[in-house]
Amino acid sequence: MATWSNLNLQNGASPLMEQMIFFHDHTLMILIMITILVMYLMMNLFFNKFINRFLLEGQMIELIWTILPAITLIFIALPSLRLLYLLDELNNPLITLKSIGHQWYWSYEYSDFNNIEFDSYMINNNDSLNKFRLLDVDNRIILPMNNQIRILVTATDVIHSWTIPSLGVKVDANPGRLNQTNFFINRPGIFFGQCSEICGANHSFMPIVIESISMKNFINWIHN
Ligand code: CUA
């Protein structure tokens, strides 16, 4: 989960999020290189006294500074496309979880197991400081780690967004639509998320919590 004054991405807890962090870092490196180059060039332009009175055109330099950015963009576009299609790929999900956005809470359905369903409300924990303030819910999602999991997202009233940063998931929940995404949690733990469509007065108070546990414990939970 995010902690105080963390300006970076949260640690990736799924292979896709790791890939997205790599892509982010890659793009940021290119951005920094361009920024430094442009800053250097501007400094040079500002602090010299050279004037070329006969300058009318410079075909060669214009050719270079048109083609160079185009090539740079390719180095961003190709990994971006790779990631885009990788995110969309669904390979034999073992479990499907349906999450439904309401004003202002989430409800979940495990359609694979005799249709287990429950609501997930934020806990009002002003009194207990050991809980996660504004992030914890009364009924957490339980999912097994090291498994391909499919998420179906929809809503009943307005647009919400089912978002978990550490798993690299962000899917809008639209009334009358069923959106699909998937992830693979590669470690046990608790993963927090929040709604990220401005959905109304209590938009900030419909968090999402996933408890990632072993398959054995998950089956135990399902039995109960
Ligand atoms: Cu639901 Cu914002």
UniProtKB/TrEMBL annotation:
<keyword id="KW-0999">Mitochondrion inner membrane</keyword>
<keyword id="KW-0186">Copper</keyword>
<dbReference type="Pfam" id="PF02790">
    <property type="entry name" value="COX2_TM"/>
</dbReference>
<feature type="domain" description="Cytochrome oxidase subunit II transmembrane region profile">
    <location>
        <begin position="1"/>
        <end position="91"/>
    </location>
</feature>
<keyword id="KW-0679">Respiratory chain</keyword>
<comment type="function">
    <text>Component of the cytochrome c oxidase, the last enzyme in the mitochondrial electron transport chain which drives oxidative phosphorylation. The respiratory chain contains 3 multisubunit complexes succinate dehydrogenase (complex II, CII), ubiquinol-cytochrome c oxidoreductase (cytochrome b-c1 complex, complex III, CIII) and cytochrome c oxidase (complex IV, CIV), that cooperate to transfer electrons derived from NADH and succinate to molecular oxygen, creating an electrochemical gradient over the inner membrane that drives transmembrane transport and the ATP synthase.</text>
</comment>
<dbReference type="InterPro" id="IPR036257">
    <property type="entry name" value="Cyt_c_oxidase_su2_TM_sf"/>
</dbReference>
<keyword id="KW-0496">Mitochondrion</keyword>
<dbReference type="GO" id="GO:0005507">
    <property type="term" value="F:copper ion binding"/>
</dbReference>
<protein>
    <recommendedName>
        <fullName>Cytochrome c oxidase subunit 2</fullName>
    </recommendedName>
</protein>
<dbReference type="InterPro" id="IPR002429">
    <property type="entry name" value="CcO_II-like_C"/>
</dbReference>
<keyword id="KW-0479">Metal-binding</keyword>
<keyword id="KW-0472">Membrane</keyword>
<keyword id="KW-0812">Transmembrane</keyword>
<dbReference type="GO" id="GO:0004129">
    <property type="term" value="F:cytochrome-c oxidase activity"/>
</dbReference>
<dbReference type="Pfam" id="PF00116">
    <property type="entry name" value="COX2"/>
</dbReference>
<dbReference type="InterPro" id="IPR034210">
    <property type="entry name" value="CcO_II_C"/>
</dbReference>
<comment type="subunit">
    <text>Component of the cytochrome c oxidase (complex IV, CIV), a multisubunit enzyme composed of a catalytic core of 3 subunits and several supernumerary subunits. The complex exists as a monomer or a dimer and forms supercomplexes (SCs) in the inner mitochondrial membrane with ubiquinol-cytochrome c oxidoreductase (cytochrome b-c1 complex, complex III, CIII).</text>
</comment>
<dbReference type="GO" id="GO:0042773">
    <property type="term" value="P:ATP synthesis coupled electron transport"/>
</dbReference>
<dbReference type="GO" id="GO:0005743">
    <property type="term" value="C:mitochondrial inner membrane"/>
</dbReference>
<dbReference type="InterPro" id="IPR008972">
    <property type="entry name" value="Cupredoxin"/>
</dbReference>
<keyword id="KW-1278">Translocase</keyword>
<feature type="domain" description="Cytochrome oxidase subunit II copper A binding">
    <location>
        <begin position="92"/>
        <end position="224"/>
    </location>
</feature>
<feature type="transmembrane region" description="Helical">
    <location>
        <begin position="20"/>
        <end position="42"/>
    </location>
</feature>
<dbReference type="InterPro" id="IPR011759">
    <property type="entry name" value="Cyt_c_oxidase_su2_TM_dom"/>
</dbReference>
<keyword id="KW-0460">Magnesium</keyword>
<dbReference type="InterPro" id="IPR045187">
    <property type="entry name" value="CcO_II"/>
</dbReference>
<dbReference type="InterPro" id="IPR001505">
    <property type="entry name" value="Copper_CuA"/>
</dbReference>
<comment type="similarity">
    <text>Belongs to the cytochrome c oxidase subunit 2 family.</text>
</comment>
<keyword id="KW-1133">Transmembrane helix</keyword>
<keyword id="KW-0249">Electron transport</keyword>
<keyword id="KW-0813">Transport</keyword>
<feature type="transmembrane region" description="Helical">
    <location>
        <begin position="63"/>
        <end position="87"/>
    </location>
</feature>
